[in-house]
Amino acid sequence: MVKIDPYKLASGCEGDSVKEIRLIDIREEILSDNQNLADEIRKKLRQNGVFMLNLMSSPGSGKTSLIVETIRRLKDEFRIGVIEGDIDSLVDSEKIAREGIPAVQLRTGGACHLDAPMIESALAAMDLGAFDFLIIENVGNLVCPAEFDTGAARKAMILSVPEGDDKVLKYPLMFSVCDALVINKIDYLGLSDFNLDLLKERVQMLNRKISIFTVSCRTGEGIDEWCDWLRREIAAYKNRC
Amino acid sequence: MHELAVTEGMLKVVLRHAERNQARKVVGITLQIGEMSDIVDEWLRRYFDYLSRGTIAEGAEITIRRTPAVFRCEDCGEEYVVNIKAGNGFSCPECGTNKVEMVSGREFLVQELKVI
Question: CATH number of the domain that A165 lies in?
Answer without folding.
Answer: 3.40.50.300
